[in-house]
């Protein structure tokens, strides 16, 4: 059964048109399970019905014509119950509804399973038999398993269809958007740009073409070029490899023959596909045939067929031997990537970067944090479509909602441009008050700091509007090198930062790598890196790394008094004690050096990150040995909710407005006040409009955020009343889910004229 399941799924997944894939699925299921009928229904949530889209056994004329309401018939019952239904005589079931068009009068046995993707019913898969019987447990388990795997393909196909993959002209009345996770607020429009596209048969996106003659000519020229390439390679291999190994080139020549591969490819071109797509469809069919052979040697030839197909594809597209495509960056660019990295953004020309779409990541992945630090709108977790599909397409990106509109029509584009204009006007209003203090309407002063260090190439670490640096991520300079930076290199970097604004506090976090921040020259292989060797755990295990960094910080601060040192990923008092012991050791060494040079060294304040839930229960003990706390709301949320913040599949579960997270933050604020330990929030929540209001109401008076958000936060502070914020907090702390919390926050922001900070438009 498992082998059959894999074969069916593989074959269906490689068919580019959803209707054809589902029709193939119905046929294969009838063959595999020896049933009389198999049908697939897909959900239409706008019309509230399931549409029959493929069948083998029912009337073909009913496909695309018969719809079953969400509350009607056995199909509707499966959708409502979200579980399989196994009946020996369907026509006697009270929910059975007769549809004469499908011609199922002779069928009695019925088995159906819902097709569910991310908690949403996408459709129903059914089997029917003429004689009365109950399907076996194995058959039911097989169908449920297949439905689960089919759900991903249908979700992907729906995403592809939403940008009208197979049509050249998008109707004016029809426009849909792709849905991702909001990563960085703002609006952007531009042309999709994918760096160094790697082309292959499997990743190629199918396209239609009306010009059959040109496509056939392109294919034939590519075949001739590939044959010439093969001749050169075969000649080069002569004398270097055995003749039986060189014989593989004979397979290439045979497959490239006009009466073999060529005949099938040109048949697909005449069916309306372009040459690359026709090649893809035929080569993938050949690969499946080879993989299904009993002879192990012949099965291995599937790899050669794929390689040959990739070579022909490269020649059709006119790209390089490594199958990568390098193009000029458009003036207004939406950067498309599987995952945005610090290096990628550092190397990208900022003047051309309008927005970012990252296939992986969530709202608080580092890609999203970097985008917010740069003030670039971003959408994350757009994982249901092939990445190449967005390349060179006009894109409208809404970082507030996570919507990505591809190839917009004139009306949509005009409406979007109007929203962009309104956003610019709001930005001008915010900047007009940039010199005014961060004081609420009832005279409560809030100190605003900046988070820095995500990208030294794109961030300015000095900000005249901030009260200092609340978090400097020292790991980025480590990640941008091919080796550990020397103490001298670190001293030069840190000294420049500390001297920029010597009268403002500057908090440096010690090396925090591991998890989603690996060092290329110090790889860490772990099954669960977020619960593994990272942060203070790594540096305490390698005191030589920790001491060099601490010495560099201290040497950079000679003659200055603005350095604070912060320890990440703290889970116990003993970790802080050990770290402080090493810091004192480094301090005495550097102090002696400074004294010999006639300089003075000031002992920096030592603080800890509150980001692991364990420390919430050790605040009294920690308060006795540290000078300040700093809440890392990103990791605190991740660990409280047991959600990997970089995993798009569970991104909807990661939410800093979760009641448990808000309760934890409230507890930290109250205990810090009682213990008289200064506390700052340096996670992304401190830069969100709703987060600012709630944190202020909880009692936080120090917030640290990226430079780009600082003036927005100041604007928020200046437009709220502490009493009203406390009333909002009291209300949201009684709510049970993050969605309700967000609704209450957004209503409040709208009521005080701050709605334009959480949605597009003034």
Describe the structure.
There is one protein chain. The protein has about 750 residues and is an alpha/beta fold. The longest helix has 26 residues, at about 210-235.
Q: How many distinct beta strands?
A: 24
What characterizes the major β-sheet? Answer: 8 strands, mixed
Termini distance?
A: 58 Å
Radius of gyration: 31 Å
Overall pLDDT? 85
**Residues in helix, %:** 40-55%
Helical segment count: 25
Fraction in beta strands:
15-25%
Broad structural category = alpha/beta
User: Largest sheet, order of strands side by side?
Assistant: 7-16-15-9-12-13-14-8
Shape: globular
Low-confidence stretches: 162-175
List keywords for this structure.
eight-stranded mixed beta sheet, 762 residues
Present the secondary structure layout.
Blueprint: H1 2-13, H2 18-33, E1 37-44, E2 49-56, E3 67-69, H3 73-81, E4 85-87, E5 109-117, E6 120-129, H4 137-161, E7 177-179, E8 181-184, E9 187-194, E10 197-198, H5 212-237, H6 243-246, H7 248-256, H8 258-270, H9 275-291, H10 296-317, E11 324-325, E12 333-337, H11 342-347, E13 353-358, H12 366-374, E14 378-380, E15 394-398, E16 403-406, H13 410-431, E17 447-452, E18 469-473, H14 475-479, H15 487-500, E19 506-509, H16 536-541, H17 543-556, E20 563-567, H18 573-596, E21 605-610, H19 619-623, E22 628-631, H20 633-641, H21 659-675, E23 679-681, H22 689-698, E24 702-706, H23 707-718, H24 722-732, H25 738-751
Parallel strand pairs: 9-12, 12-13, 13-14, 17-18, 17-24, 18-19, 19-20, 20-21, 21-22, 22-23
Antiparallel strand pairs: 1-2, 1-6, 2-3, 4-5, 5-6, 7-16, 8-14, 9-15, 10-11, 15-16
Helix pairs in contact: 1-2, 5-7, 5-8, 5-10, 8-9, 9-10, 15-17, 17-18, 22-24
């Amino acid at each position: 059964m498992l082998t059959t399941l894999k074969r069916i799924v593989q074959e269906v997944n490689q068919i580019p048109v959803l209707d054809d894939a589902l029709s193939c699925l119905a046929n294969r299921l009838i063959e595999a399970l020896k049933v009389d009928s198999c049908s697939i229904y897909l959900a239409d949530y706008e019309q509230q019905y399931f549409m029959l889209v493929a069948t083998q056994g029912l009337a073909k004329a009913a496909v695309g014509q018969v719809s079953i309401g969400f509350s009607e018939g056995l199909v509707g019952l499966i959708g409502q119950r979200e579980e399989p239904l196994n009946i020996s005589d369907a026509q006697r079931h009270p929910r059975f509804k007769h549809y004469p068009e499908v011609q199922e009068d002779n069928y009695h046995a019925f088995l159906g399973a819902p097709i569910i993707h991310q908690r949403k019913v996408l459709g129903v898969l059914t089997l029917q038999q003429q004689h009365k019987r109950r399907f076996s447990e194995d058959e039911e388990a097989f169908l449920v398993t297949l439905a689960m795997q089919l759900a991903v393909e249908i979700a992907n196909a729906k995403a592809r269809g939403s940008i009208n993959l197979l049509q050249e002209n998008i109707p004016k009345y029809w426009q849909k958007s792709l849905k991702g996770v909001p990563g960085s607020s703002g609006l952007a429009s531009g042309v999709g740009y994918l760096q160094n596209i790697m082309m292959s048969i499997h990743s190629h996106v199918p396209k239609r073409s009306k010009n059959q003659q040109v496509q056939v000519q392109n294919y034939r020229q590519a075949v001739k070029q590939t044959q010439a390439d093969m001749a050169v390679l075969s000649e080069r291999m002569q004398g270097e490899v055995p003749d039986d190994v060189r014989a593989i080139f004979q397979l290439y020549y045979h497959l490239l023959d006009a009466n073999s591969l060529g005949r099938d490819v040109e048949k697909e071109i005449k069916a309306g596909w372009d040459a690359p797509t026709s090649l893809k469809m035929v080569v993938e069919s050949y690969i499946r045939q080879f993989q299904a052979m009993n002879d192990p040697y012949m099965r291995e030839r599937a790899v050669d067929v794929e390689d040959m197909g990739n070579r022909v594809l490269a020649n059709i597209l006119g790209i390089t031997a490594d199958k990568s495509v390098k193009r000029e960056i458009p003036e207004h660019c939406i950067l498309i990537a599987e995952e945005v990295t610090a290096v990628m953004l550092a190397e990208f020309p900022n003047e051309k970067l309008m927005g970012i779409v990252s296939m992986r990541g969530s709202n608080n992945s580092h890609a999203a944090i970097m985008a917010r630090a740069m003030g670039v709108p971003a959408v994350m977790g757009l994982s249901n479509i092939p990445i190449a599909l967005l390349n060179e397409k006009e894109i409208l990106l809404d970082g507030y909602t996570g919507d990505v509109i591809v190839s917009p029509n004139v009306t949509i584009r005009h409406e979007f441009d109007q929203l962009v204009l309104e956003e610019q006007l709001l930005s001008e209003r915010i900047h007009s008050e940039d010199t005014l203090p961060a004081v609420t309407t009832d005279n409560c002063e809030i100190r605003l700091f900046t988070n820095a260090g995500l990208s030294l190439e794109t961030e300015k670490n000095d900000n005249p509007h901030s009260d200092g640096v609340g978090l400097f991520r020292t790991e980025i300079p480590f990640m941008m090198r091919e080796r550990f930076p020397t103490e001298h290199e670190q001293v030069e970097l840190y000294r420049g930062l500390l001297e920029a604004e010597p009268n403002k506090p500057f908090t440096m976090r010690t090396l925090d790598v591991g998890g989603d921040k690996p060092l290329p020259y110090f790889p860490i292989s772990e099954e669960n890196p977020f619960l593994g060797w990272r942060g203070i755990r790594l540096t305490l295990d390698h005191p030589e790394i920790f001491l060099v960094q601490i010495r560099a910080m201290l040497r950079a601060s000679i003659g200055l008094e603005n350095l604070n040192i912060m320890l990440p990923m703290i889970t116990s008092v003993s970790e802080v004690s050990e770290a402080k012991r090493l810091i004192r050791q480094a301090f005495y060494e550097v102090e002696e050096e400074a004294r010999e040079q006639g300089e003075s060294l000031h002992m920096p304040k030592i603080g800890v990150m509150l980001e692991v839930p364990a420390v919430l229960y050790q605040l009294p003990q920690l308060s006795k040995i540290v000078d300040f706390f700093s809440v890392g709301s990103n990791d605190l949320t991740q660990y409280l909710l047991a959600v990997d913040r970089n995993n798009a599949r569970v991104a909807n579960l990661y939410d800093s407005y979760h009641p448990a997270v808000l309760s934890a933050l409230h507890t930290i604020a109250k205990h810090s006040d009682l213990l008289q330990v200064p506390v700052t929030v340096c996670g992304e929540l401190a830069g969100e409009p709703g987060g600012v209001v709630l944190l202020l109401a909880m009692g936080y008076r120090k917030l640290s955020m990226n430079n780009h958000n600082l003036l927005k936060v100041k604007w928020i502070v200046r437009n709220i009343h502490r009493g009203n914020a406390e009333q909002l907090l009291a209300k949201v702390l009684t709510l049970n889910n993050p969605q309700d919390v967000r609704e209450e926050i957004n209503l409040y922001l709208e009521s005080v004229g701050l709605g334009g900070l959480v949605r597009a438009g003034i």
